Amino acid sequence: MKKVRLGDICSVVSGTTPQTAKSEYWDGDIPWITPAELKEDSYVVEDTVRKITEIAVKEKSLKSFPEGTVLLSSRAPIGKVAIAGKEMYCNQGFKNLICSENINNEYLYWFLKGKNEYLNSLGRGATFKEISKTIVEDIKIPLCSVEEQLHISKTLKKCKEIISYRNKQLEELDSLIKSRFVELFGDPKLNNKRWDLGIISDYYEVKGGKRIPKGMGYANGVTVHPYLRATDMKNETILDDDIHYIDDEVYNHIKRYTVKGGDIYLTNVGVNLGMAGVIPDKYDGANLTENAVKLVPKTKKVIDGVFLAHYINSPGIQEYINERKMSVGVPKLAIFRIETMPLLLPPMEIQIKFIEFCKQVDKLKLEVQKSLEEIQMLFDSLMQKYFE
After folding, report:
1. CA-to-CA distance for 174 and 190, rounded, in angstroms?
2. pLDDT on residue 222
3. Do residues 362 and 317 both lie within one domain?
4. Phi, psi at 327, each rounded to 5°
5. Is the CB of residue 140 less than 8 Å from the CB of residue 10?
6. Other C-beta atoms within 10 Å of 197: how many?
7. Is residue 269 part of a domain?
8. Residue 4 forms beta bridges with which residues?
9. Residue 233 and residue 266: Cα distance in Å, rounded?
């Protein structure tokens, strides 16, 4: 497939910002867009947060771009993409592409959508990176017939719709578990079901993780000792997609800070502070980051780990955590704050009822996740096939 310059098949246009101090330029009914309004899943943009007036257009000689124009953010950040659903104006943070009859705007959208890393590599500037009109015009795109472009766009759009649907299913299943938790246990902060109360330290010992010693790092190509970081912890479990490992030398320095399958983790440092979950059995013996603690049972099982993780992640306890974290510099929750955290003590039979419900939902989540991974792999391979 031949490749052509975008500048040979598109007109590249930008915009400007009318003086914000002039009230007569703002709060009109003419759409005016900024890069901040584009999201990861933006496709066709029909409206904008801010509007300008006819006075602004006339006095500043602003130039609009037509419906169907491909929006491309050129700074702060580079690489956000969407399609204009109507005629509109924009600020100077775009290099938008008005397509000729030789290129379909949806095809161009998908091409640019898959080139975020490449686009960012083209950024220039000392203070902040930006791609110029000339740089955008010089980008080359594989160009097939318009009919084939339409077929490609339709295929990619369908894949993305399925991906979005699968992600929505996962979100709804998570919401289902949260709803069941509230149904069975009420609001933990209010204890409106009047369960017996204790504190975490009555039943769990709270132990911190350990930083990798200075001068040492992750193992290259070695997968012997997993090192669990706060970024690996989400949705009451450990994500497997980017686990880091340490070698025997590093492990021997920090082996006191390992976890067991079934332990509860709680992130207590950094932006992800407050997330709790259960350590899967396959990570028995893994080392734990200094940005998290593990909760180890002291006595016979009075509180189940699955219940406890969902309890900590509930809105009421998250509010408790946020009220007590130290927010000067890096957010941090002191261990004594965790030890004195209030703990509901519902009967074990009710906890088991919740855990069985979670297991059934988790089976559905695994099926949805598998389907999601398959369609994502298909989408990625098609993007590579069409645009590499």
Report:
1. 22
2. 67
3. no
4. -105, 5
5. no
6. 11
7. yes
8. 141
9. 9
Amino acid (one-letter) located at 54: E
CB 383 within 8 A of CB 156: yes
The C-alpha atoms of residue 179 and residue 196 are separated, in whole angstroms, by: 21
Number of domains in the chain: 3
Indicate whether 102 and 230 sit together in one domain: no
* Cα distance between residue 383 and residue 109, in whole Å: 12
CA atoms within 13 A on the CB side of 278: 17
- In the numeric block, which tokens belong to residue 312? 């900590």
The β-bridge relationship of strands 78-84 and 70-74 is antiparallel
Q: pLDDT tens, 62-79? A: 999 999 999 999 998 999
Contact 136, 147 (CB under 8 A): no
Q: Is residue 181 part of a domain?
A: no
Number of CB atoms found within 10 A of residue 204's CB: 25
Q: What CATH number is given to the structural domain containing 291?
A: 3.90.220.20
Name the nearest CA neighbour of 227 among 213, 12, 30, 235: 213
Per-residue pLDDT of 34-65, as tens digits, reads 999 999 999 999 999 999 999 999 999 999 99
Cross-strand partners of 75: 130
Amino acid identity of 300? K
Q: Quick one: average pLDDT of 79-99?
A: 97
The model's pTM is 0.84
* Residue 237 binned pLDDT confidence (cut-offs 50, 70, 90): confident
Residue-range definition of the domain harbouring residue 49 = 3-143
For residues 308 and 312, what is the distance between their CA atoms, to the nearest angstrom?
A: 6
Same domain (yes/no): 200, 311: yes
SS3 225: strand
128 & 202 share domain: no
Here the tokens at position 124 are 């220039």
Calculate what percentage of the chain has a pLDDT beyond 90. Answer: 86
Average pLDDT, the chain: 94
Same domain, residue pair 286 and 380:
no
pLDDT of 388 strictly over 90: no
Q: 379 with 289, same domain?
A: no
| pLDDT at position 234 | 85
Could you tell me if 110 and 250 lie in one domain? Answer: no
Amino acid symbol at 88: M
Assigned domain for 187 exists: no
Whether residues 201 and 257 fall in one domain? yes
119: left (phi over 0), alpha (psi -120 to 50) or beta: alpha
C-alpha distances (whole Å) from 91 to each of 29, 68, 74, 240 are 16, 18, 11, 41
**326, 350, 353: which is closest to 337 by C-alpha?**
326
